[in-house]
Each structure stands twice: as structure tokens, then as C-alpha cells.
Fold each of these.
Amino acid sequence: MESLFRTNRFESFTVKQATASDAKAVTDLLKGVASRLQKKGSNQWEFLLDGGEDAEIVSSINRGVTYIVKDDDDLVATFNLSSKQNDWDVQLWGQRKDQAYYIHRLAVDNHYTGRDIGRDLLFWLEESIVGAEATLRLDCIANNSALNNFYRQVGFTYIGNALADGDSFSLYEKHLK
């Protein structure tokens, strides 16, 4: 594993950087989660369902910011992690020059929900990212109360809301030790 993480394992899972051969599986996982959320009444990630973000998902993999979590050969989860702000981060957070990692598209496969994998993955990131004095940052649509509560429960601090693309987004961060 690259030097970004101290270890590439948590519990029985392996974390690795996604490759081009993982693109379909990552896209399918994200669309599956978006579909489940939509059925629950959430518009979180609904834009993924029409395929409009497929090229961006592949681009993120090619840029090396997409990671996958596997249990043997099964894809359990995916997330994007970067120490560089993308255009979305700048829109929400403003231009920042501090040491931070931005998390996007953290999703657990529908077959693995209810096992606290998302929580454990966030704790693993907190403990495994190399480099002290950094901050983890993430956002979510403001009207997703379950996700907002989840981020608070796992120790992220609510920073405020930001408007983008006609929606309000909640901003969260957590300082690494």
C-alpha cells in the first residue's frame, strides 16, 4: 500500500487503491446505494442513477483517489480520499491551504449494511492516515438527517452549511491526532 496509510487492513477487510479494472464494480456499488437511498426517500446521490457521473467515477479512479474495501474477493465499500481540494471542495469549503484530506463517495455495499462498516472505516482512516496535524473533511446533503447524525456520532464536528447547485450541504471535519 502506498505510504498514505499505516496499514491496509482493518478487521477482516483489505483497503487498496482502485484500478481501472475496478471501475464497473465501484460504479455498480455506488448506483446500488443511490437506489437504496432513493427508495428510502433520500435524494442523496440521485444524480448517480442516470449514469451522468460514470465518467467522473472512472476519472477519480484514474487519478488515484478512489479506494476499495474488500473481503476476500467481495467489494464491501468504496471511498474517495484526497489531500488536494477538487472543484467541489473549493465551492463548499473555500480555497484552503491547510493540511486536510477530503472524503467523498464513502459507500458500503447494500449487502454489508447494518454491520457498522462505515463507522469502522472512518475510525480506521482516522488512525491509519500517515501525517500528524491533518484534518479529515467531508460533506453531505443537509436534509439527510440520518447521515448528519451519523457523522456527529463518529466524532466529526459540524462546521456549518454551504450552498451548491441549489442545495444546502452540511460540512464536517475531524482533526487527526
Note: The chain has a mean pLDDT of 93.
Amino acid sequence: MKRKNYALYLSRGAIIAALYVILTWVSTLLGLSSGVIQLRISEALCVLPLFLPEAVPALFIGCIISNIMAGGVFVDVLFGSFATLIGAALARLFCKLPEGLRPLAGLPTVISNALIIPPVLIFAYGASEGYFFILFTVFLGELISAGIFGTVLYYALKNHGIEKLM
């Protein structure tokens, strides 16, 4: 990688991480970023790896920072951020799929969070709502943020020529 490209890669990654933190903060202000019922607007950014490979580590770092700022316990910071990393890494693989399937790139984030976050909430925070209820609420929140908002972001970027930035 050329030095100029490396600097561009790092700069874009830093911007993505910062956007993730800011959007999570907005969700926090609305009371939606953590707990059994959560909707992190920032999870819509999990479609960015389709266009920019640096988005994968950037989203992971942004999630770590967000979870620390939210006062998350170590288990939540670790596994919550890992769920976002898995979703982002799998979303990156969607660029190898046919064009018609690429808008679904937010689904790995939906699934990874729905599987990983409920046990974290139960064991780290003592959430007593029951596993399947928490799984449903986390799934629904992620479906809205990463699934729906992510798909809208995908089409907005696609229609406005993000390929020119790469």
C-alpha cells in the first residue's frame, strides 16, 4: 500500500470510527443505545465495509469507544464490540456476492448482535427479562438500525457514486 493510500485508509477509518461514536451518542441521548431494548443508529454504518475495507476495523474501534463511554462493563465492551466486528467482517464478504444481494449486507450485524448481546445482558448486567425476549428486542433493534437504516445508507451511497472515493 502506498503511503498516500495508507494515509487515506487511516483517515477514512478514523472518520468512520468517529461517526460510529457520534451516532451512538445520539442514540444514548434518546435512551436507545444500551439495555434490553436498544436501537443504535450507528449500526447502520455496518454496510460501509461493502465499499471501504477500512470500515471493518473502524467500526470495531468505534464500538469499543462507544461502549466504554457508555460505562459498559468489560464483558460488554469486549463481546458487544466483537459482535459488531463479526457483522462488519461478514458484510465485507457481501461485495463478492451478486449485486442484488449486496443491500442485505446489514444482516450479519443483525444476526451477530442478536446471538451475542442477550447472554451479555443477562450475565454481565443481570437482565431478568428472559433470553428469548432479549433476543427478540435486540434482533428487532438491529433489524431497524443495521437492516433498514443500513439498506437506506447502502442505496444512498450507491446512488451518489461512493465508488469515486475508492
Note: The mean pLDDT is 92.
Amino acid sequence: MADGSLKSGGMTDHAKGHRTRLRARFKKAGVDGIQDYELLEMVLFRAIPRRDVKPLAKELIAKFGGFAQVIAAPAERLTEIKGVSDNVAQELKIVHAAAVKLSQERVLKRPVLSSWNDLIAYCRAAMADEKTELFRILFLDRKNILIADEVQQRGTVDHTPVYPREVVKRALELSASAIILVHNHPSGDPTPSRADIDMTNHIVEAAKALNISVHDHLIIGHKDHASFKSMGLL
């Protein structure tokens, strides 16, 4: 049989050798030694064991913009791409869930103010590529330890209904002394809107009456974030 011809299950010798070489390079150099599409290839190896997945990996990166954007994309958008079955989409979503969980573990039960970069990384992993607005609340105790992380509301592409009374009520239920508000802008631009500012002021007023501090309000965009505290809005 000629070199490069099909072997069992339809995979060529070249494709098999490519998988072996790529895994060896990753084992030696880690994630810094491979490109985004190659990391995605290795995820796809598990879901598509008998086909050359390099073209699909490159197409997904081109479509969504990067490895993180691919695994964060909704399953229904992933399956629009030829070659992405429900099983492939599920494999990608599992990787995304693991990434979010890892980021969350780095901040949960830890002093938030001393692990701020990890907190931002977690919020970005969890929310940056969502296609609708999510309003998340991080609840802190007296030592600024993160004791709970909850998505309170899900909205549309440009609006999430938020009720200050419900925010404060949940903080009291958890015996939280402080909160950090977080929501995403699916447009990608994290600049606060007038509605964002007004809503934040209403929550601050409601929380202040019960001795609950609002440390910050973070808005997560695709590639950046905005901090109300840093902008002098809190």
C-alpha cells in the first residue's frame, strides 16, 4: 500500500503520524509550544478519532477567532460548521466547562482583593463570549473571602432586568458583608451605559441601608473589562 494511503477507519499514515508528533510536542513544550489550532486539534482527536481534524480546527479558529472563543461558543453555533456533530460540540463544551471550573476554584474561598487578576480571569472565562447578558453577583464575607458566586438574571443581547431588592435580599440570606456586581456586554464593548450606572447606584443605595458594601461593578467585554471603581463611578 502506497505511503499516505488510507488505513483502518479512513485515516492516512500521515494523519496518524501528525497526531503522534503533535502530542509529543505538547508533552515536551506544553501549551506555549503549540498554536491555537493545534491545541484545538488535540481536543478534537477524542471526538473524531479517525479523521484528519486539522482543516476543521483551522476553520473553527477562523470562524470564532481563537481557541477560547471556539470552546465558549454555543453548541448550536458550533454545529453549524460542517464536520461538527453534536458529540463534537459536547466535547468542546466539556473543555469550556473545565476551564471555567478551574478559574472559579482559583478565587472561591479566597480573599478576592488579593487575587484580583484571577477573579477577572474567571469572569472573562465564564462570561466574555456569552451571546446574551448575564448579571452575576459575587458575595463576600467580612474578610473579603468569596463565599458564593451566582448568576441572578439572564437577559437579552443588550438588557438584563436587575432588581436591587432581590440583590440585597440574597446577600442577607448568605450573610454577606459585601458584594461585587458583574455583567457582560455581548456587543464586546465594556463601556458602562447610563442604565448600568443608574442600576448600580440603586443597588448601592439599597445595600448601604443594610451595611452591605458594593466593592465594584465589573463589565466584561470580549477582550477587555471595565471597573466602576477604577473609573470613579463607585
Note: The chain has nine helices and five strands.
